[in-house]
Amino acid sequence: MNELPQQLVNGLLLGSMYGLVAIGYTMVYGIVQLINFAHGEIFMTGAFGALTVYAYILPDGTSMWVALPLMLIGAIVVAVTVAVGAERFAYRPLRTAPRLAPLITAIGLSLALQQAVWAWYPEAKSARTFPTIPGGPFTIGNVTIQTGDIFLVVAAPLSMAFLAYFVMRTRTGRGMQATAQDPDTAKLMGVNTDRIIVIAFALGAAFAAVGGVAYGLKYGQIDFKMGFLLGLKAFTAAVLGGIGNIYGAMLGGLVLGVAEALSTAYIADIPGMDKFGSQSWADVWAFILLILVLLFRPQGLLGERVADRA
Amino acid sequence: MRQRSLIAITAALAAGALTLTACGSRDSGGDKGSDSGKGGGTTVTIGIDAPLTGDLSALGLGIKNSVDLAVNTANKQNLVKGVTFKMVAKDDQAQPSSGQQNASAFVSDSSVLGVVGPLNSSVAQSMQKVFDDAKLVEVSPANTNPALTQGTDWQKTKSRPYKSYFRTATTDAIQGPFAAQYVFNKAKKTKVFVIDDKKTYGAGLAATFTSEFTKLGGKVVGTEHINPDTKDFSAVATKVKNSGAEVVYYGGEYPQAGPLSKQIKAAGANIPLIGGDGVYDPTYIKLAGSSATGDLATSVGAPVETLASAKEFVANYKAGGYKEDYAAYGGYSYDSAWAIIEAVKKVVDDNGGKLPSDARAKVTAAVQNVSFDGVTGKVSFDEYGDATNKQLTVYSVTGGAWKAVESGTYAGG
């Protein structure tokens, strides 16, 4: 069982990435009750934004310590632009429409963004390599952490702390809470709900962009399809944690990631289960976990704290 | 209200997943119609089905370009009098459903007398019957699953399921054991961790490797199946590290093999990964990074660059100004197309310089008997439609490129 600490770390790292993307799903749902299915693609465009900065703007051979903050800014600028644009042109016109309409729009937008990157980004028809952080892996006890993962180790808690501060302590954050609770009353109290909604989209996109950069650094490659499966997982994480709850999104992500890692590592050791334990079954176990949580705790692990309208 | 919203979420999730999956298999080949019988000459179309976009496009575009070169060469030499060859390429995106749609489209175009492709064995499975019903010949430069030519029971009784299917690549029944013999006898590794992607090609390769490796006395210290859609193999990499394996055998293709190799090394297991021809591509090295040095792959045939017959192909390919590399199957693709061209020539010659009305059936029959010196050596087919040339090569990643280590023919099990 000396494998356990490493597998937990594997799961937590994967889960942090799910969590970063899940925040965007959860915030937008908490405020406008919309499941933004294009959010996975916002994550993807963020990663391509970072690559653009590295490959086409910075001179060759720029040190990663200089490049990384700039790549992060590039990722956030691209992702936020896409998300705010989507909100303005795809979702806002449909805000009073039946809920199915923006959902279908979201799916359409998801495809459109994928195809746009596929068609127009240079050499994006197959995977593109992403720069990596130099330096060897770090070993603590018998746990190894890759340099590419260090970014995630630092960025995920920092992002969460920032978000907690923003939502709990700032005026805008409290405006978000108010809008989530009751948009009409919030409006009467002088909250600019349109602005709040745009901020929710932008903030979610910024986190997705951080996740996108983390993905690139972790796996050393990005592609136009990367947002689909990851977006689906992040959505699952959001539902698992209690959609609408931002801490729930992070927790759901971590639980999902750990479940995947542990199911790959240990299910096969259970007698009679050796056929269901490989990595190709990890997704199945993740979704079984989701179903179980929803059966016994339909509001998700932490329930809805931000949104209480559904 | 809450329950209703949950139902909506679930429905949306399902709808989203279905929509996106379905859209992944859209047919993007836009060519249609035929020009046969125009003026004095006849146009014969050679179809190409390969993944021209997506993860495996490096291999697919190599196939397309090489067939294009064969067609241009035949036209330039005026090889078949009165016949102009034309190629039409369709993208299967490595999806069986797209492959089948493309196959139907080729069948309905009467100028198509032969198809080169596909790349993936799983795609070939979905196409074989469509072509066979139309008696349209299909020559794959890359499929290696034994069942395609020898039937699903090939380990016990061989029987050829479709008479219209041929391939210039050799099979996994040979490739897997060839790798096993190299790993056990030459590289002296006795403990292996076997991973596959559960697809027709990958699982077949892993199985033939495993059976030969254990027969030789090697030990399989662990097995895993991965999901080709994900990029996170960290859990698998940790298992490999803790298994004490000396080598990893991977049955699958380079889009997964590259990240897998990288993550295994990153987890601290400094052991080589060996795969089949689906791994043997420059993109693998790009994806696996610098730690890929020492990784191995077997591929069908001798290295194209070393064969005298291939020098001309390489030179012509360069002169053709193709943007992409001819990749792992370039030589085989050229030979596949050439086999069809030779067959058309024979049929036309036998019919007094004109195409007969049942040209497709005649061409299929003629492919069975072709024999010529191709890019990859002597090209001819046995009673199952398999290449008679059973040469294989082990390549290793050295200095950021694939270098041939050993070439030979597989000596029985």
Provide a short characterization of the protein structure.
Chain A is mainly alpha-helical and 310 residues long. Chain A contains eleven helices and four strands. In chain A, the strands form two sheets. In chain A, strands 1-4 form a two-stranded antiparallel sheet. In chain A, strands 2-3 form a two-stranded antiparallel sheet.
Which descriptors would you attach to this protein?
heterodimer, A: 310 residues, mainly alpha, two-stranded antiparallel sheet, 11 helices, disordered C terminus, B: 413 residues, alpha/beta, five-stranded parallel β-sheet, 19% strand, ABC_transp_permease (chain A), transmembrane (chain A)
Itemize the secondary structure elements and their pairings:
The complex is a heterodimer of chains A (310) and B (413).
Chain A: H1 4-32, H2 39-57, H3 64-91, H4 100-120, E1 128-129, E2 138-140, E3 143-145, H5 147-169, H6 171-181, H7 183-188, H8 193-219, E4 221-222, H9 226-241, H10 246-266, H11 282-296
Antiparallel strand pairs in A: 1-4, 2-3
Helix pairs in contact in A: 1-5, 1-8, 1-9, 1-10, 2-3, 2-4, 2-8, 2-9, 3-8, 5-6, 5-8, 6-8, 9-10, 9-11, 10-11
Chain B: H1 2-23, E1 42-50, H2 57-77, E2 83-91, H3 96-108, E3 112-116, H4 121-133, E4 137-140, H5 147-150, E5 165-167, H6 172-186, E6 191-196, H7 200-216, E7 219-225, H8 234-243, E8 247-251, H9 254-266, E9 273-275, H10 282-288, E10 296-300, H11 308-319, H12 330-350, H13 359-368, E11 372-374, E12 377-379, E13 391-398, E14 401-409
Parallel strand pairs in B: 1-2, 1-3, 3-4, 4-5, 6-7, 6-8, 8-9, 9-10
Antiparallel strand pairs in B: 10-13, 11-12, 13-14
Helix pairs in contact in B: 2-12, 3-4, 6-7, 8-9, 9-10, 12-13
Largest sheet of chain B: 7 strands, mixed
Fraction of residues in helix of chain B: 40-55%
Measure the end-to-end span of chain A: 44 Å
Q: How many runs of DSSP E, i.e. beta strands of chain B?
A: 14
Query: What general outline of chain A do the C-alpha atoms trace?
Result: globular
How are strands sequenced across the largest beta sheet of chain A?
1-4
Radius of gyration based on Cα positions of chain A: 19 Å
Helical coverage of chain A, percent range: 55-70%
SSE order of chain B: HEHEHEHEHEHEHEHEHEHEHHHEEEE
Average pLDDT confidence of chain A is: 90
Sheet with most strands: strand arrangement of chain B: 7-6-8-9-10-13-14
Most extensive interface, chain pair and sizes: A-B, 55 and 50 residues
Number of helices of chain A: 11
Cα-to-Cα separation, first versus last residue of chain B: 66 Å
The share of residues in extended strands of chain B comes to: 15-25%
